[in-house]
Structures are given as structure tokens and as C-alpha cells.
Amino acid sequence: MKVAIDGIVQEAKPKEFLVDLITRTGGSVPHVCYHPQLGPVQTCDTCMVEVNGQLVRACATQITDGMAISTKSAKAEAAQVEAFDRILSNHMLYCTVCDNNNGNCVVHNTTKLLAIEHQRIPFRTKPYEVDNTNPFYRYDPDQCILCGRCVEACQNVEVNETLSINWEDPNPRVLWDGGSTIGESSCVSCGHCVTVCPCNALMEKSMLGHAGFLTSLKKSALSGMIEVVKGVEPETGYGSILQISEAEHAMREHRIRKTKTVCTYCGVGCSFDVWTKDRHILKIAPEHGPANGISTCVKGKFGWGHINSEDRLTTPLIREDDKFRQASWEEAIALVARRLSEIKKKDGADSLAFISSSKCTNEESYLLQKVARAVIGTNNVDNCSRYCQAPATTGLFRTVGYGGDSGSISDMEKADLVIIIGSNTAESHPVIATRVKSSHKLDGQKLIVSDLRENEMARRADLFLHPKPGTDLIWLSAVSRYLLDNGLAHSKFLDQWVNGLDEYRESLRPYTLEAAERLTGLSERSIRTVAHMIADAKATCILWAMGVTQQSQGSDTSTAISNLLLITGNYMRPGTGAYPLRGHNNVQGASDHGSMPNMLTGYQSVDDPEVRQRFETGWRVKLPSTKGLDNHQMVEAIHEGKLKAMYVIGEEMSIVDSNANYVEAAFEKLEFFVVQDIFFSHTCRYADVVLPGAPSLEKEGTFTSTERRIQRLYEVLEPLDGCRPDWKIIQDVANQMGAGWQYHHPSEIMDEIASLTPMFAGVNYERLAGYKSLQWPVAADGTDEPLHYTKRFAFPDGKARLFPVSWIGPTDQPNAGFDLHLNNGRLLEHFHEGNLTYRTEGIREKTPDVFVEVSPELAEERGIQSGTWVQLISRYGKVRVRALVTDRVQGKELYMPMNSVESPVNRLTSSHTDVVTNTPAYKEASVHMKVLAEVGESPLPRINPRFGHPTPQNGVEVERKWKRADYAPPGNGNGLVQLQTKK
Ligand code: SF4
Ligand code: SF4
Ligand code: SF4
Ligand code: FES
């Protein structure tokens, strides 16, 4: 389409908003409330332009062919200035002494763009106090221009639905839960609102008093300076005042660094700029991340207290007579190399084992498995995907060929139907949850959730299934059978793309609706409803996580999920597919890069001679050919006296592995144990040598997120004195043992990986520069694959395979002695045991401790209230913990999050595992609960967001502003036309 902007003809894209076209083609139009990732908010009216002689909002008007647009007509300019004048009546311009004077303040920049010299409408304060009650950010009503961006972000992007504006009030302001303080509201501190606020009304507390040269002055001094500035404004106008503030901003540019990184917590793969001044983290600024845009959760936005924590390890430690003493790097590395070599010589290479970290980079994982294989000569190497993701990978290997998510987060957004099984997505993968919540709220996406707990996604779901523990495989198979029996399967897709239908159909025989109802406790009706919802949907995605995988049939249930997707044709198209949600930031990458006992990089088998030959040539060594031990087998092998030495990087294995008491007992038996970490973790207690590594902000490398997205992280801060990036430590150890490696930068390691791994052939740092990313497989020319299987499945004949499975039943079932089922998992605020997140004070304040969720009915039966201390006793151990009474759980099902080092839930879990992958069956635990006499405070304080009361509405509801008696569109009388309203 062609349109004319200020007389110049421009090419427009279909459905493009005028504001985007004008800026894309080099023009400018003021716009304050518009943000490309929020869409039209339409509250500020500063974007008025003339179209074919009539005033319209450029942010809400889509192009039509032949439009004549004037951004600078007298009518348009008068309306723009009038609208902005109204904004300034809500905001005091004191840029020079404002922490938001960083070149990106929309109010400052618009004042300049419109060359405003004087305000017509004077600034009016609002009758409200500044709200400082959230630990991470504050709201200043006097500076709030009521643009509503924050409300839009909270309601429709994050979909936490905390914020609104009371448009009908004489003095509107932003409200939390309709009028609570921020601290006592449902706000989950995700930071979306702060990120999009166009001025200083919402600010990160870490910025306040730190960003500017003059902003750390006392409030009284600041107020005096503001008064002086205001005093000269009538004479000098804003132009010269802004020049001073711009000089101050230019000075800031020299001391504030903005460095891109990738989040260190979950597998969503959020990326953002980190603003720092020396070692002080000013703020996290998400904007360009391909997975997250403006989105983060509380951990990514504010959970960085661990970086400058006082108790970071800064020197190697060596055990001596049951105590640790500080040592030099030279001594520690020499000791590690000597002891590993001695044990290898004495007991053979397979008496050593290595565990890589899913918090470390791809390059670091690659190097650790290279040490194991090429330097020591063993395949005993694994990573924590064994604890969570291996079963999902197996289910996908069996059926479709690749062991990763079949598409991207954007596919989850596009789906007509999303099914979530065994995943507390809103807490474990918060930014993915925002995309599903938003599509469900705004675009008619349907949602089915199967879980033991009525978590947030379950509460939002169109259909919530609560099957008996460990029975997902049954209802999934019953749905498949019902679809096939009733002609609702996708027969064309099956004919063209899928092998093994007859055998699969036969395997489904036992899964009638009657049997499924009896075994799962779900009604036949709900199982039929699931089947029809899938059959009716054009595109279905299934998301699953540890509620499925951490069961003794985790691999089989994952397989059943993929089978169901295959018979309904839900692969190969946008909006479809299988999404096992990866837990850690780089758990996908740790496996991808060969930290597995049976696979080298890119899932190349160690027993394939051609593969070994390639690596042997590349590494110039002879490689072991038999599969090594996985994490679980390593613990067993220590107890059996076969494994003598271990090297663990960045894993709190002593309490995150199942049956923690048994794991600790194993560690005590090791002859030599090296732990590399950034804190003296619980696992370090068992070490002989502790090596201080570096956290993600202190190194370069790449992470691979759940959607197989490889992204670069840059060094935000130099490693703390005494620490070293983990890749350097691994290289030092290898070289001390004679490896002769010479990597000077992680990019060289990635080049080597690409040269040996067809799946990563085209990966290099140039192609990943800045916010660029690649989703594997990556061909040599750099072509990647955001959506798998668009042309074929990853098997030699290009066809998928239905893989029959049958239900056996869970282990560790409740009985008379252990009468309660114990479920466990993550919390939004803390990452796993909390080694990193407890070091952020605000997170600790809001969520200080672990607890066990008890249903109201069980609480009544046992005389328990929130705060009652109980002892949970399983067949394997016991913990003392406070109860939290909540209807998120039902009947005799308990839930205990993992956020504790002192009372870890894994003292209660067993050594049973998934029969295929040895992933611990963490979710199969039963306990006896002893109620103790002591009653304490509720383990969750009142300021925890779970006690808030959200106020859902569709965005900022600007129509209510327009209905105010004192509202008239700027340029009124000049004929504002509301061409479009937002969806
Ligand atoms: S949940 Fe809280 S931090 Fe997140 S957007 Fe809403 S008000 Fe802001
Ligand atoms: S607090 Fe919200 S409404 Fe106020 S200026 Fe910031 S984004 Fe706009
Ligand atoms: S923890 Fe996950 S969702 Fe939260 S910011 Fe980090 S990557 Fe994003
Ligand atoms: S940018 Fe605010 S109304 Fe258009």
C-alpha cells in the first residue's frame, strides 16, 4: 500500500499503525503512551495527526491505501501540544536531578521534540503519598502522567491483573488491587510496569540515588534545587533547562554500562541489558529479547543479590583435618590434577565421574565432558537434566526424532488450545505463562490443565483435571483411544506422516473411558471433553514439566503425550507441538553439548564408530566407547565402592538429588571430591577441594533455552577478585594434566563444537552477536529451525513413529503407615533450593521460608492451622516444617516447595527412578505427618503476593477516561475521529 506522509509517498505494510510507519520511514510524531509491545493504549493523545483532513490518533489508526497523512499541520501540532500540556500538568520536570534522566525518558524527549518552552496548565500535585512498600520499586503519584502503560502491561502482557486506574476519581492514580499498598497487593514484582513506565513515576529502587550525579543528595537539598529550576523556568523556558539536564545525561553515559545478558534462572531464556555503575546493578532493562521482549519475572528483574553477596567464594579451599583452609589457585589446581591422575592410575578412568552444571554455559559444559572423555578417558559425565528432562527427551526421541521443544514460545501463543500437564507454569516458567495467559484472556485460546494442585494456570483453565497421582498416562491414552475409535483422529496426517498405527491402536485396548475413570478418578465426561476440545481445535500445543517427568513412568507418559499429538496431526504446523518446559537456564544446553554418559555433542552416540572417529581426530586422543554412568548410577557406584572421585560443577547435588540422606552418605565415602561453585553450598561440605567459579554476569558464553534458542551472554562485571570463569578453571585443570588446551575466548570453544557437531554446524559468535539468536539445528549457512518438522520428522524415512506404552503404576504409594501423598516443586520467587535467590533481600522478605501446603479438609481433621509446625516422616527421612493451609491442594495430598537447604524436601523422596532414564521419581512420595505442639507465624507473611486480590479488566479501559465530564479530545472542534479502537 502507498500512503503520503507530509507529502512524501511511502510504502506501508498491511495493518501497520501510522505511528510505526512514520517512525520506520524516518519521520517523527510525538507518542507517550504507545509502546510497540503494548500496542495502542490511547490515553495520552499526543500522537494526533491529520488524515485526509481529520484528526486521528496515529497509535491506533491502521494504514489504508492512499491515505494522506500530515504530522505537522497546524491542526495536528496544536492538538499534540495541547495533549502534552495536559501531561505536564501531572508531572514535574526536574530532569537534571532525576534518576530517569538517561536519554530514554519519554516525557523529557517529548518536551524536546515538541519544543515546549512553557506550560499552559500548571503542574498540580496529587493528594497521595509516594508508595515505597515494595522492596524493589516505588510509585510516585505526583510524577505519574496516567498514561496507563503500566496497567496495560500488568493486565494484558504479564496478566497478573494487579493494576488499574480509577478514571472516575477526581484525582485518578494507578491502583494496586483497587487500592491496596503495593506491598500488600497481589503484585508479583515481575517489573513489567516499571520497565514500560515512560518516566520516573515507577522506578527501580536500585536506580534511586545512584543513576545521576546529583540524585543522591538529601531530599531537602533536592527539593531546594527543584524549586530553583522552577523559579527560572518562566524566564528561560524549558529549552535551556533541558540543555543542562542533557549535559548531565551525557556525563552519565561515561559511567553507566549497559551490557546484554541472558537470565541465569529458568529455561525461558529471557535476555536483557544490565545497567551497572561500577559493581552496583542499577537495573535490568528487558526490551529486545527474542523470547521475552519487555517481560521478566521477579528473579530475572530483581533477583541479582547473589552477585555482590558478601559470602561469595573468592579463594580456593582445601580440606585439611576436617576443616577447610584457603589455598592459592596454583596449589588447588595442582592438587586436583594430581589426585584425579592418581585415582585414575590406581582404579582406572571409570572410577572417576563428572557432573556439569545447567547454570554454566554451553562452552563450559562442552569442556567438562571433554575433560572426562579426552583427558581422563571415561564417559562418566552427566548433568541435572537427569533429574528432570531426560524422560521428556526420551519420549520425543522415540516418536518424532529430536529431543527438544518442537516449536517456539510464539507457537504456544498462536495455538487454539494449550494443554498443560504437570507444570506450575506461572511459577516455574513465568514468562511463558504470560504468553499463554494473554492469548487465553484476549484471543480466545482454550486452556486445559492437568495437575494435582489448583495452581494459577489451573484456576484460569477452561477445564481443570485433577487425576490421581501418577495416572496421566492413563487419561492421555484413553483420549487417544476415544479419538481413534470415534473417527476423530487426523487420518490424512497419520497416513502421510506416521508409522506404527496398528500396533499403537492395539496397545490402547485397555484404556477405555470406564477403565480410565476408575484408575484416574476423572469422570468419563471430562476425558471425552478433552478429546473433543483437541479434535475441534485447529492447533494444539501440549506443555509439560516435572509433574510428568519425575515419575517412575516419566518417559512413557512423555511418549503418550507425543503419541496423542501425532494422531491428531498436531505437529509440523505453527501453533502445534510438544513443549517439555526445560527447568534451568541451560539445562537444554548442558545435554546438547555432550554432558551425558551416552552422547557427545548434538546427541551423537558414543558407541557410533564414525562419531568417535571424528572426535578422536579433532581431539587427537583415543575415546572410550562404552556408555558411562548417569547421576543416579554414580551415587550407586560410590556406595558399591566402584566410584572413587567426583568433580561437580555448580550443582547442589547433596540436596537436590532424590533421597538426599543416601546421596550425602555416598559423598562421605568418596576418596576425592571437587566442587566448583560460587558459594559454599551444602554440597561443598563434602568436598576435598572447593574452587570458586563465576556467576553468569561475570563471564561470556552461550545458553540454550527451552525453545532450543542459543543466545550469547556478555561479561557485565569482571569476575570478583579471586574467582575465575568456569571455562578457565576447567582448562587449567585439564592443562595441569597435560591436555595442552589453548582457548583464549569462549568463541573458540564454540567454533570447535560447530566443527564436530552437525546439529550446530552454523553456530558462531558473529551470528549470535547482541540480541541475535539461533534455534537448533543450525545448518552450515546459518539457517536455523524455530519450528521443527515442517518438511519431515527427524527419522531416516521422514516419518514419525507411534510408540506403544502401558501403565504400570507409581512406586512409593501411601499406605497405613505413610498415609499422605507428598508432591513437590518450585516456587515463583525462589529458584530451586534458593542458593541464589535467598541472597536477594526483597525476595527473602516476601518469601522467607519453606512450608508444606495442607488442604483445608486435612487441616481441620488434624487440627492444623497456617504456622503449625509438623514433622513429615517418609520411608527415607524426615523434615520439620510449618504448614500453610490452602485450597490449592486437596484431601490427603500435600505440596512442599524445594526452597530450603535446611529442610529440603529431598530428605523425604526415594531412590526410585523412571525405568528408562533413571530420573528420580521425586513426585512419588508418601509421608506420615506428625503434628507438633508448636504454632508459629504463618510461613508466608501477609506481604506475600499470594494474599493479594487482583482486579482483572481488559487493559487500562481508556474509554472510561473519555467518558469523564472534564475530558475532551485535544483539538476538539477540529473533528477527532476515532478510526480504530484497540482489540
Ligand atoms: S505484577 Fe506488580 S510488578 Fe508486575 S506488572 Fe503488575 S504491578 Fe507491576
Ligand atoms: S506509573 Fe503507569 S500510568 Fe503512571 S506514568 Fe508510569 S506507566 Fe504511566
Ligand atoms: S527466571 Fe525465567 S521467566 Fe524469570 S526472567 Fe529468568 S528466564 Fe525469564
Ligand atoms: S501515543 Fe498516546 S494516544 Fe497515541
Topology:
Elements: E1 2-5, E2 8-11, H1 18-24, E3 48-51, E4 54-57, E5 68-70, H2 74-88, H3 106-113, E6 137-139, H4 149-157, E7 163-165, E8 174-176, H5 192-196, E9 202-204, H6 219-253, E10 256-262, E11 271-277, E12 280-285, H7 298-302, E13 317-320, E14 323-326, H8 329-347, E15 352-355, H9 362-376, E16 381-382, H10 385-388, H11 390-399, H12 409-414, E17 417-421, H13 425-428, H14 430-442, E18 446-450, H15 456-460, E19 463-465, H16 472-485, H17 491-497, E20 498-499, H18 501-507, H19 513-520, H20 524-536, E21 540-544, H21 546-549, H22 554-567, E22 577-580, H23 587-592, E23 599-600, E24 604-605, H24 609-619, H25 631-639, E25 645-649, H26 653-656, H27 660-669, E26 672-677, E27 689-692, E28 701-704, E29 709-713, H28 726-736, H29 746-756, E30 773-775, E31 800-801, E32 820-825, H30 841-846, E33 852-854, H31 856-862, E34 868-873, E35 878-885, E36 893-897, E37 926-935, H32 958-962
Parallel strand pairs: 1-5, 15-16, 15-25, 17-18, 17-21, 18-19, 20-31, 21-22, 25-26, 26-27, 32-36, 33-35
Antiparallel strand pairs: 1-2, 3-4, 3-5, 6-9, 7-8, 10-11, 11-12, 13-14, 13-27, 23-24, 28-29, 29-30, 32-37, 34-35, 34-37
Helix pairs in contact: 8-28, 9-28, 9-29, 11-22, 16-19, 16-20, 16-22, 25-27
Describe the structure.
The chain is an alpha/beta fold. Strands 14-13-27-26-25-15-16 form a seven-stranded mixed beta sheet. A hairpin with a 2-residue loop joins strand 3 (48-51) and strand 4 (54-57). Mean pLDDT is 95; it is low at 978-983. The structure holds iron/sulfur cluster (3 copies) and FE2/S2 (inorganic) cluster (FES). Residues 31-34, 42-47, 57, 59 line the site of FE2/S2 (inorganic) cluster.
